[in-house]
Specification:
single chain, about 450 residues, alpha/beta, TIM Barrel, five-stranded mixed β-sheet, 18 strands, globular, binds zinc ion, purine metabolism, allantoinase, metal-binding, Amidohydro-rel, cobalt ion binding
């Protein structure tokens, strides 16, 4: 990357010149003019454009829209020793992400009423390096709060159909799910669902010990399949828009595609860890790989990739859900007692690109899954594309460079990740939020992220 200052009166604050750029219609070359934080022009590479400054991408760099990660557990306030807004958003910026949407649980209080949202916004304000939106929670006992949360600007509501892992975020039963979806349909909002069935999990063998196969048997595909079928039918009855979080069981793909063909309003995400790891290779006691639903077999992973290729899966987001090393129980390695969650916010783009390139996918597909897709599903209208009018959120990416992950060098609050020691392709050279560098050689220390409200442009 080379920069120069121009003497004549500038039309733009910044001009990016890229031999390779991923636009809404795929890969090409181009010049991108930024004015007042927005993309004001996208022109051919040789078009003369005067900027206050010009950023010339190097031969091995590609200009991408900033990634959008709509599934991040920041845990702040209340469990900020697990993660926090300054660390999570710094890690996001370093990983090429310019917008996150924060989950409503594992923080205290959980985001289940407008007051709790206000508390969280107060903690995040002035402390975020990327733009941050918020999900609200739909839990047992708060369904009368959904309208107020919606009016306060949440991007939708998250619910569980089994114990969430924390007592203060109780699941919905079948009748409550239906009632909540009726409200969601009325508001034209979005319900995002952790789809594992509590009865199926109760009847599965209990998770204990250090053997990964025993843990996998405790969270069977059937539990996911059953819950997803229930959500699809409830969405069909109510007309509500639903989103299946962190899909792990590839068995569910045909029924999701079938429901969608029938007109059910459903979108689906999966996560980098389900696309990267396979259960056969997870060592005994390696609880940094524990998450729910779990990482499954190699054949399952390949079917998830097919789900992406066929368009059944809309997006890939991190489900970054860290905790302290103590809660991961790394010393005893017991999958039954360790906290479930994979820490990966900073690594998602490289992790997915590493796997995608070996399967014949290009960067345009990765951008559609990790930037445009999550922006569309969440309703982030100004994000996820290099196009005129969008926020100038950009990532300068070197797809053919590589690195080995060292958990101690990441910006996450805790140095634990399932990717430690793995070689990943693709290096983020710099990240730009509304035309300002937030990662890379020129990034300032001051947080410049904004708190976002649904519907704001
Ligand atoms: Zn999650």
């Amino acid at each position: 990357m080379v920069e120069s200052a121009n003497a004549s009166a500038p039309e733009f604050d910044v001009v990016f010149r890229a031999r390779r750029l991923i636009g809404p219609n795929g890969e090409g070359s181009g010049s991108v003019g930024v004015r007042d934080g927005r993309i004001a022009a996208v022109e051919a590479l040789d078009t003369p454009m005067r900027g206050d400054r010009t950023v010339e991408l190097a031969e091995d760099e590609v200009l991408l829209p900033g990634m959008v990660d709509s599934h991040v557990h920041v845990n702040d306030p209340g469990r900020s020793e697990w993660e926090g807004f300054p660390t999570a958003t710094r890690a996001a910026a370093e990983g090429g992400i310019t917008t996150i949407v924060d989950m409503p649980l594992n923080c205290l209080p959980p985001t289940i009423d407008p007051g709790a949202l206000e508390t969280k916004r107060g903690v995040a304000s002035g402390n975020v390096h990327v733009d941050v939106g918020f999900w609200g929670g739909a839990v047992h006992g708060n369904l009368d709060e959904l309208r107020g949360l919606h009016e306060s600007g949440v991007y939708g509501f998250k619910c569980f159909l089994l114990h969430s892992g924390v007592d203060e975020f109780p699941p919905l039963d079948t009748a409550e799910l239906e009632r909540a979806l009726r409200t969601v349909a009325e508001l034209d909002a979005l319900m995002i669902v952790h789809a594992e069935d509590s009865a199926a999990i109760e009847h599965a063998p209990s998770a204990h010990g250090e053997n990964y196969r025993d843990f996998l048997a405790s969270r069977p595909r059937g539990a996911e399949n059953t819950a997803i079928a229930q959500v699809l039918e409830a969405a069909r009855r109510t007309g509500a828009r639903v989103h299946i979080l962190h899909l792990s069981s590839s068995d569910a793909l045909p029924m999701i595609a079938s429901a969608r063909a029938d007109g059910v309003r459903v979108t689906v995400e999966t996560c980098p860890h389900y696309l990267s790891f396979v259960s056969e290779e997870i060592p005994d006691g390696a609880t940094q790989f524990k998450c729910c639903p779990p990482v499954r077999e190699a054949g399952n992973r390949e079917l998830l990739w097919r789900g992406l290729a066929e368009g059944t899966i809309d997006c890939v987001v991190s489900d970054h859900s860290p905790c302290t090393p103590e809660l991961k129980q790394l010393d005893i390695g017991d999958f039954g007692v360790a906290w479930g969650g994979v820490s990966s916010l900073q690594l998602g783009l490289s992790a997915v690109w590493t796997q995608a390139r070996t399967r014949g996918f290009g960067l345009a597909e990765v951008v559609s899954w990790m930037s445009a897709g999550p922006a569309r599903v969440s309703g982030l209208r100004n994000k996820g594309a290099i196009s005129v009018g969008a926020d100038a959120d950009l990532c300068v990416f070197a797809p053919d460079s590589a690195y080995v992950v060292d958990a101690n060098e990441l910006h996450h609050r805790n140095a634990v990740t399932a990717y430690h020691g793995r070689a990943l392709a693709g290096v983020v050279r710099s990240t730009w939020l509304r035309g300002t560098p937030i990662a890379g050689p020129e990034a300032g220390a001051a947080p410049t992220g904004k708190l976002l409200n649904r519907g704001e442009v």
